[in-house]
Amino acid sequence: MKYLSFFCFTGLIGLLAISAAQARDLGEGAVNDSPSRALQNSEHFYEIWSGVGRLSLQSGETCSAVLLDTRNRQGQATGPAYLLTSGHCVYFEYGSARANLPFEASITFHYFYDMPQRKRQYAIRTARWSSLVGTDLAVLEVDATLASLIQAGVNPLKLASHQTYESQDALNVGAPGGFAEDGLRLSACAEQTAGTFIDHPGVFPLAMKNNCDLHAGSSGSPMLNRRTNEITGIVSKIAMWRNIPVPPDCEYSTSCTAARFNYSYSANFLHKCFIDGVFTRDGADCSLEPVELTVMEPWKLKSYVHRTQNAVGQIELPTWDFRFSLEAPFYRYKTVHNARDCQVPGNYSAAISTEDAYINTEIGPQSGAFALCIIGVTSGEQQLTRATLNNVFTSAVYLSATPDTPSQAVSKR
Length: 413
Fold this sequence. Notes:
- By secondary structure, the protein is mainly β.
- It folds into two domains: 2-286, Beta Barrel (Thrombin, subunit H); 289-400, Sandwich (Immunoglobulin-like).
- Helix content is 8%, strand content 35%.
- The protein has helices at 2-21, 146-151, 254-258; strands spanning 37-38, 52-57, 62-67, 80-85, 96-109, 120-131, 137-145, 168-174, 185-193, 208-210, 222-225, 231-237, 262-265, 274-275, 278-279, 282-283, 286-287, 291-295, 304-306, 308-309, 315-316, 322-326, 330-336, 352-353, 358-359, 368-377, 393-400.
- Strand 14 and strand 15 (278-279) form a beta hairpin.
- The radius of gyration is 22 Å and the shape is globular.
């Protein structure tokens, strides 16, 4: 009876905190890009973030993760508990997406440094989906039900209902290491799309970028709408120049400038993958397939390409020169100026055999950013839908008029 009373009390405190969150600035006046701070929860003021935890991997490394609110329309928690984190924390293979992957790890909730007695650890045995194909996301199943975690005072967070490409104030709550206060930290910043062309290795087109004060272990942590507390994205890559001097003339190099940002990926499309509280990756509106795409000669990929002039004075356009292998028997592709259009079914090529797959069409003729969109299909007749295009692989280049065009002129799309 004593423990039941405690759970009821903490549940009530959590509900009151969530209600209060709707009426206050969740950042509590924090200035964007200011240093992060440890969250002290002795007064139960930050119960709304008790569902953000430290993800401990078998390798000894750590990431962050967040408990998803998958309750049905009646507000009932009927299924397992699911976490959202970065795909590279689960399976680090660029161009690969896996489903139902055995995965031994643990998650620690109530991860506040000043309340170590309340920390609770739960086992994870399966990654229901993990992807590094145009995104960096993973859905993990906890060895517990969502209802039991809520009863234990762990508050899940909702996915944002839609993605915005405009700059907006955001918060990050994560569990990085390297601090005396071993617990969750809060950081404030503005978040916006990084566009189609991002001159940074391992970052896909349309990632979101920010300047929150993030550190090692923040991968997998949620970016949150500062007003609604909804998940707007999951952190993928941490800024390279954090707490070290920026190289001279960095502002004149797009690759150096890009390395100064953190990157995250939206996960709002996963809304449609939960049916009655159960993750269903092959439903009518959710199609998350295993993908194995390998770039055969990655060292030949270029960020910048340019027009050349042949011996008779004719302008020649560069080509993609993109050789790859794909586990699916066929593929379809297209090139677009704006990577958002990769998820629009129109204008894809007819199905092409993946045997000796090679795309060498011209890039251009207009200057600017271009994205290559590749999707594997099982047959020549398979129709593309917005659901299946969540599996699209993307790569981008910037076409300039001549090799001497300043590299800092990049697409703002």
